[in-house]
Structure formats: C-alpha cells, structure tokens
Amino acid sequence: MNILISALLISGLFFFIVGTIGILRFPDIYTRAHSTAKCDTLGTVLILLALIIYNGINFVSLKILLIIIFIWITSPTSTHLIAKANYIQENKDKKL
Fold this sequence. Notes:
The chain contains three helices and no strands. The protein has one domain. The mean pLDDT is 92. The chain has helices at 2-25, 29-55, 59-95. The N and C termini lie far apart (60 Å). Helix content is 92%, strand content 0%.
C-alpha cells in the first residue's frame, strides 16, 4: 500500500514539475496554457488519489473525490476561457 501511495505522490510531483518547466520554456500563452492545464490537473488528481488511499474509505475520501471531480471540470474550462480571451484580445488589437 505504501508503495502505491509513494508512486502516486511521485507521479503527481513529476507532472507538477513538468508543468512548471512548460511555463518557463514554451514561447506563447497557448502552449503554456496547454502544458499547465494538463500537467496541473493530472498532478493534482494523482496526489489526491494518494491521499484517498492513505486515508482509507470514509466520508473525507468522498469529499476528496468531489474535489477531484470539481478540478476535472474547472481546470480545462478556465484554461479554455483564458486562451479564448487572449485570442479575442489579439484579434481586437490587429483590427485597430
């Protein structure tokens, strides 16, 4: 059980690090947003799954599962809205 928890935590940390490197290395907002949205969502889910396994099946685990579902919905949506707002702003600047 501890090996599974450690593997999930290390995997989640790996995805957070890759997302951070993506912010620093990629040239524009679209590639940065893609990198961070995918990596942060996956990293958070893996770490929260490790917490569910460590905590066992109880009411707190149900709350953590609801947090995972909320993150799966809100993270891609917010990334899409940020990218769309930037696209609209860029096109508005080109028309002027």
